[in-house]
């Protein structure tokens, strides 16, 4: 089996081939993907492997990847990611264990990370802990027992290939699935995350024109977020990393505290453009704020970047998505920084031109249930897509005046912070 460097290089080579075929520069692609040019360059040259598959898939679709290429790319990412942190030449001692995420989290609380259509979870499930997958290949009874270190490496390799095979099978089943207009998911008993409304609803026999994926556990700078939890601090486990937040929040029945950041990726399913005309906010219910403890996932991890977003004030009488420019104070941007223009409608999307919308909704005075509506039109057809949290409204509760806790491992756990 190839070493870690070979697996990473194969993944990077596939990315470079897609990039070269697209005819676009690193800067142009990075701008569309809302990431830095240097980060994309590192991915395409094997200097780093993305921690999540979602940005890889967006990159591939932007470059015009076919369904078969998406399957191949996901297999290569799984192999490179499963051996993250291992040196190219294995040392005599086994690689360190990676703590697995829980797999049996109930589907409640603040909901999954990806309320999505066509797929409820836009990021394929990856093997975050290959060492926890049980062996499925047993050695012959008369085979001599190998030394412990080789056994561990051999098992790790079998588990890595097993994870890749499962991922390929899963992605193969998911790639052809797209939005179904005006239908109900019989398994869930609720409409899909992006469902049309109004009199201009397309007939069921017409193909869907849009694919929408949603992430509702987006943290500021990837490390800072606040959750309200109805538990004492000693009953709350340490905060997860961002990609594990949906499962962690569901297990704690947590609610977004004060702010919910939602990332919406919209892409056409055909070469012809679809016009995105506007994004609107619907508040389903408002209640008094929850009187729960507030737990912050990061301390002092804020950076010099304020991203451009569509801001929503859930306390307003008529909330609306308002474009707000961002500001970059990092690097060589000067004392006044660099303005990051906020997205402004209308947009055009196609099967090779996705659009990523960042929505930040805030409330101080309510416990609010809400969702978004995206208005679109194309080729004489038009409609409104509901964007929510896997069939449920998003939920955000004000956290002002609640006890605030931040996790400090060196201090032994959750430490209460002074009031603002």
From TrEMBL:
Which domain of life does the protein's organism represent?
Bacteria
This protein's UniProt keywords: Membrane, Transmembrane, Transmembrane helix
Record's compositionally biased regions (Pro residues) = 141-150
Span-the-membrane segments of this chain are 161-181
A GO molecular function assigned to this protein is: DNA binding
Instruction: Specify where the region named Disordered lies, as residue ranges.
Output: 83-155, 183-207, 323-342, 389-420
Q: Where is the HTH cro/C1-type domain?
A: 14-70
**Name of the molecule in the record:** Helix-turn-helix domain-containing protein
- State the species of origin: Streptomyces alkaliterrae
């Amino acid at each position: 089996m190839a070493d870690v460097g070979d697996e990473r290089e194969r993944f990077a080579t596939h990315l470079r081939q897609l990039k070269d075929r697209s005819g676009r520069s690193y800067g142009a692609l990075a701008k569309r993907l809302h990431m830095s040019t240097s980060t994309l360059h590192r991915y395409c040259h094997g200097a780093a492997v993305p921690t999540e598959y979602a940005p890889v898939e967006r990159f591939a679709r932007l470059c015009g990847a076919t369904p078969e290429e998406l399957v191949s790319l996901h297999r290569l990412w799984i192999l490179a990611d499963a051996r993250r942190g291992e040196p190219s030449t294995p040392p005599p001692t086994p690689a360190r264990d990676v703590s697995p995420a829980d797999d049996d989290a109930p589907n409640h609380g603040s909901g999954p990370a990806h309320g999505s259509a066509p797929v409820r979870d836009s990021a394929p499930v990856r093997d975050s802990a290959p060492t926890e997958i049980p062996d499925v290949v047993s050695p012959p009874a008369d085979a001599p027992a190998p030394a412990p270190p080789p056994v561990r490496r051999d098992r790790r390799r079998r588990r890595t290939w097993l994870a890749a095979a499962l991922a390929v099978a899963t992605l193969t089943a998911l790639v052809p699935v797209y939005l179904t207009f005006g239908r109900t998911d019989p398994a869930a008993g609720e409409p899909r995350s992006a469902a049309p409304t109004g009199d201009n609803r397309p007939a069921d026999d017409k193909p869907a024109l849009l694919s929408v994926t949603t992430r509702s556990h987006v943290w500021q700078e990837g490390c800072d977020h606040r959750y309200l939890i109805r538990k004492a601090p000693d009953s709350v486990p340490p905060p997860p990393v961002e990609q594990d937040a949906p499962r962690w929040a569901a297990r704690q029945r947590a609610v977004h505290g004060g702010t919910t950041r939602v990332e919406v990726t919209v892409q056409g399913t055909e070469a012809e453009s679809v016009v995105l005309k506007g994004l609107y906010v619907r508040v389903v219910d408002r209640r008094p704020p929850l009187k729960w403890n507030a737990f912050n996932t990061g301390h002092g991890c804020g950076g010099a970047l304020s991203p451009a977003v569509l801001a929503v004030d859930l306390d307003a009488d008529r909330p609306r998505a308002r474009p707000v420019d961002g500001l970059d104070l990092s690097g060589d941007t000067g004392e006044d920084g660099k303005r990051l223009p906020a997205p402004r409608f209308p947009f055009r999307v196609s099967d090779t031109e996705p659009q990523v919308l960042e929505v930040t909704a805030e409330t101080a005075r309510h416990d609010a249930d809400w969702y978004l509506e995206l208005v679109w039109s194309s080729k004489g057809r038009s409609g409104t897509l509901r964007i929510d949290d896997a069939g449920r409204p998003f939920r955000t509760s004000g956290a002002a005046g609640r006890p605030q806790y931040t996790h400090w491992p060196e201090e032994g756990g959750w430490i209460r912070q002074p009031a603002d």
